[in-house]
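**User:** Here is a favour to ask of a fellow structure person. Please take any protein you like and set down a full record of it. No explanation is needed for now; the record alone will do.

**Assistant:**
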Amino acid sequence: MNSFIESQTWGQAATNRAAQASLMRSVYVWMTLALAITGLTALYVAKSMTLINLMLQNSMLFWGLLIAEVGVVMYLTARIHRMTFTTATVLFILYSLLNGVTLSVLFLVYTLSSIATTFFVTAGTFGVMAVAGMVTRRDLSRIGSLCVMGVIGIIIASVVNLFLHNSVMDLIISCAGVLLFVGLTAYDAQKIKRLLMTEGTEVNEGTQKIALLGAMTLYLDFINLFIYLLRLMGDRK
């Protein structure tokens, strides 16, 4: 009898681990897919002078796209548990497309070679920190909280510097941004792993939505890390 119970327990544990591994793979697959959509969209828009001129000559359109991005993220984050997984996926893809449109202006400011170099540096840094966050036994919650507060600080500083145009302050903000999103990458990777270990006992619509939300979190970490590194490393045209 005891052997039968132990066998069932072991089998259930193995099933849970398989489900968690599957969901964790989904997190990085969806994140990679979103990055690919953003990159291809940005490159397509940057090569279309019609679309670029439309954005540059109509500031209301550009700001409207930025507001739409924020709106999609806020709506998806707040209501993901109430919507279907299909709807959540469509919104995530929509956000990736919108982000690609707005990031297309980077191709007008920086050389293609420096964008490519910065992308690979970002990918390497992100990969190392994501692995570190997943394998470390240290609780990174405190570091994550400090990084979130730091991000709020650099957002405020960035808004202020829009009026000051201080190059030294811009350099400090960029360096701080890199450090903060390096820390957030490790923290978010650990947080997602722990959440899936708690909730991911099976692959269903609910756990898939958790994984999708995790993919969006890591996607945002990657994009922000890339932008701040590009501000430091990028060669301007």
User: Anything to note?
Assistant: DSSP finds nine helices and no strands in the chain. The chain has a mean pLDDT of 90.
